[in-house]
Amino acid sequence: MDFHALSEKYEKEYLENVMELLKIPSIFEEDPVYPYGKPIHDALEKMLSIGKEDGFITKNVDGHGGHIEFGEGDEIIGVLGHLDVVPAGAGWTTSPFEPTIRDGKLYARGAQDDKGPVMAAYIALKLLKDQGFEPKKRIRLILGTDEERDWKGIDHYFKKESMPSLGFTPDASFPVIHAEKGLLDSYITYQVPETEGETKVISVHGGDRLNMVPDEAVARIESPMNVDGVFNDYLAKHKLEGTIKATGGQYEVKVNGNAVHASKPEEGLNAITALLRFLLSLPVNGEYETFIQRIYKAFATTDGEGLNVKQKDEVSGALTSNLGSIAMDEHTCKLGFNLRYPVSADYRAIDQKLKDLAVKNKGTYEVYDHLPSIHLEKDHPFVTTLLSVYNEVTGGTAKAKTMGGATYARALEAGVAFGALFDDSPDTAHQKDEHVRISDMVKAIEIYARSLYQLTV
Predict the structure, then answer these.
(1) 175 preceded by a cis bond (ω within 30 of 0)
(2) Using an 8 Å Cβ cutoff, are 357 and 298 in contact?
(3) Which of 66, 196, 252, 367 sits most deeply, having the most CB atoms within 10 A of its CB?
(4) Which of 54, 113, 114, 147 is catalytic?
């Protein structure tokens, strides 16, 4: 089969199908009937109806997920993607749920994460089927519905359906992600000591998602001093942006940061830690100053040193930490943070060190979510097959790599992330004007078709 020529012929069909899918605002909603809301249900039904019309075997698993399948045999090769999306947010050039093509790029919420890549994988299946290929294993495109929240959909799905022997998710980047760091979301809550002196911090708030570096943090301060001057000097010294305004005898101080994904916190600017550092420049003396200093030092760097969990390995690199949220008033302070730890790390040891840190400072520690690391060796036949196909299509010599993000590969007993972004692809997931290059999706179709062919021939 000439996979390159065939994939180009399917561009029109790809766009027709994916644009219909992208019109559905499949954001989670509470609903008494549908597990994750009617829009997500509609997206699942739409995808399954496309598969059914094209002659595939389809199944809806209680509204929690579904699959599209063809081939024979006991062994299943899985392709896992998701149909739910994050809220659109503001600032779009065109409506987020009215897919638009501009300059060879497809714009819509979900174009990159993950409806666009899911449809590329589906078209790869259809290409093979249309050519009369009869796989000796079952190829199953598994459709998730709750990836952006709690993964309850895929958990329910695998309670009812067979686990593939091997699988990949088109929800990251090429060439092959053979290992993903462990992911830990936690909270520590402290009692706030009383402020000594006339300058008092009434409240501090910032961040609402632990998997993002916060881009804004706000403090309310009561003080007889000229806080304006101190704050503006602080911004100038550290080359930061922010605002300050007087409200009813108090100051509202806002520091702006630079939001990036928590898997690479060192590339962003954490507004919360920047604000905490400013508070230390005020005359908040005594036990309160020590308290703020302790929090700041714990998260001033993103390598976990302040939390006493700094470490790295050769496979997946260094541990990263991100202070993702703070909610503090005059009585309590709740900190939310995200850790991505190396695949060789001992999770229990990390967990115990965090507990010890909280207890030492008279706080309480709770785990909100934990996803263990995953790792397939670079020389695993599945990894080498996918990598060889990628290099054959691109003409490169790429090697398998690791990442700190979390994908549906973790839901598999043996899985990896495989595309659909290339090294030079725009990474716009979860951002305004989310988009993919159409040429990237056509190339992904070729890579997925070739890979599934070789895995099941």
Answers:
(1) yes
(2) yes
(3) 66
(4) 147
234 φ, ψ to 5°?
A: -65, -45
Q: Rg of the Cα trace of the chain?
A: 24
Burial class (CB in 10 A: 0-12, 13-18, 19+), 294: middle
Query: How wide is the angle at C-alpha 208 spanned by C-alphas 207 and 213, nearest 5°?
Result: 50
Among candidate residues 84, 146, 215, 440, the one labeled active-site is: 84
Peptide bond into 440 cis (omega under 30): no
The yes-or-no verdict on residue 448 having pLDDT over 90 is yes
Instruction: Specify the pLDDT at position 66.
Output: 98
Q: Name the nearest CA neighbour of 200 among 223, 218, 233, 172.
A: 223
How many whole angstroms separate alpha carbon 414 and alpha carbon 375? 8
Q: Is 84 a catalytic residue?
A: yes
Task: Give counts: helices (H), strands (E), the chain.
Answer: 11, 24
Question: Does pLDDT of 90 surpass 90?
Answer: no
Q: How far apart are CA 351 and CA 345, in angstroms?
A: 11
Please name which of 436, 388, 457, 454 lies closest in space to residue 14, comparing C-alpha atoms. 436
Tell whether the model's pLDDT for residue 116 goes beyond 90.
yes
Q: Return the ∠ at Cα 303 (arms to 280 and 266), rounded to 5°.
A: 80
Q: Do the bridges between strand 138-144 and strand 65-70 make them parallel or antiparallel, or are there none, so unpaired?
A: antiparallel
Q: pTM score > 0.70 for this model? A: yes
Instruction: Return the pLDDT at 285.
Output: 81
What is the average pLDDT across 32-51?
98
Which residues pair with residue 415 across a beta bridge? 167
- Contact assessment for residue 362 and residue 321, using Cβ atoms and an 8 Å cutoff: no
Strands, DSSP E only, in 110-249?
138-144, 166-169, 172-173, 177-180, 182-191, 200-206, 216-222, 241-247
Q: Residue 89 carries which DSSP code?
A: -
Mean pLDDT of 225-252: 93
